[in-house]
Amino acid sequence: MADVTVQTLTSPKVAVGRKDQRKLGWTRWVVLTIITLLMLFTLFPFFLALSNAVKSGTDYAINGPLALPQSIDMTALTSFWQMSDFTRKLLNSAIISLAVATVGVLLSLFNAYAIGIGRVRGSRAILVVLLIGIMVPQESIVYPLYYMAKVAGLYDSQLAVIIICSVLQCAFGTYLLSSVLGSFPREIIEAAEMDGASRWQILWHVVVPVLRPSLMVLGTFFFIWTWNEFLIPLVMLVSNNNQTVSVAMALTRGQQTSDPTFQAAAALLGMAPTLIFFLIFQRTLTRGVAVGAVK
Predict the structure, then answer these.
(1) What global pTM score does this model have?
(2) What is the DSSP letter of 258?
(3) For the range 180-188, what are the long-range contacts, defined as Cβ-Cβ under 8 Å and sequence gap of 24 or more?
(4) To pair with 276 at 20 to 30 A between CA atoms, which of 106, 223, 265, 283?
């Protein structure tokens, strides 16, 4: 009788547990299917650019853009690389993007340290101004920036693009880091001050180690945003030796002519560096976002 009672008491729980496991299993498969479809949808433009970049003009005209290439033809890639002096463009984009990522993160850190921990007067008004700066479209400030660059003698100089992009992007970085530093434990700051640490030492030995994952994420975003920036380099850099990858991609289409395989080659070569950069720093980016969410 005791065995029968135990079985009657435990069997409903076991059945419910099996049902929950089945539901959980089906939920996992549904989520996995959705994520796979989204991944394929995201990678489709890259695959399309890769497929058309290695096609010949005749193959593209006969089979269309969605068909697989009948043979590998590197003519479009080599032609675009030589015509645009792509090695020079890669070097220019790398220098500008790395400089903007470094300077933008430093400016964001200093501003956020003053607003979040220094508690400067009018910090809320400063954040409102920064938010307005984030929302203002670049097209509305291009002419003032162009005029100031001409007056300062920085027109057609990579330094002008570095300064402009660093200042524009540090507005977002300041807002992001100041919200994190606004909730920074005051006890840690007070303990460091009691030990005789200066504000500079508190910044580099107390605040920066805690913010390092967030700073890495911010630097990654700044690098990718600057690499993909088109309008400001187009306006500020007129000589061929100073132009960036995004500007070089605009050379693939003329007023009367258009070569789809040539455009696909330009798109592929333009996307590849940022994709490689993201894959290299993917773990750092994911870790930084996770740490920031936990904090």
Answers:
(1) 0.80
(2) B
(3) 180/112, 180/116, 180/211, 180/214, 180/292, 180/295, 181/112, 181/113, 181/115, 181/116, 181/117, 181/207, 181/211, 182/115, 182/116, 184/116, 184/117, 184/210
(4) 106
Residue with tokens 């600057």: 226
Cα 248 to Cα 79: distance, rounded to the nearest angstrom:
13
The C-alpha R_g of the chain, in whole angstroms, comes to: 27
How many Å apart are CA 32 and CA 39, to the nearest integer? Answer: 10
What type of residue is 216?
A: M
Average pLDDT, rounded, for the chain: 81
Contacts 24+ apart (CB under 8 A), 76-79: 76/259, 76/261, 76/262, 76/264, 76/265, 77/53, 77/265, 77/268, 77/269, 79/262, 79/265
Dump pLDDT digits (tens) for 152-204. 999 999 999 999 999 999 989 988 888 888 777 778 888 888 888 888 888 88
Domain residue limits, the chain: 2-63, 85-252
The yes-or-no verdict on residue 5 having pLDDT over 60 is no
